[in-house]
Design brief:
The protein contains one helix and two strands, in the order ββα. It is α+β, with helices and mostly antiparallel strands and 62 residues long. The protein is elongated, with a radius of gyration of 15 Å.
Amino acid sequence: MCNTPQYARNGAATRCVICAGKFGLIRHYSWRTALCSKKCAERFKTRREDDHKWLRRLQAAA
């Protein structure tokens, strides 16, 4: 694990994974990933769906 201040020592997230924004009073979670807003949660969900589509195409080609 990195020793930079970006990473918390106890493994707790300090910033949003999608936009690197600070957390407010409410955190949204998707697949154990802390996100700062519903907008970021939707972006994360869309990104996961796109990854699954790409992997299905890759498996079909193999």
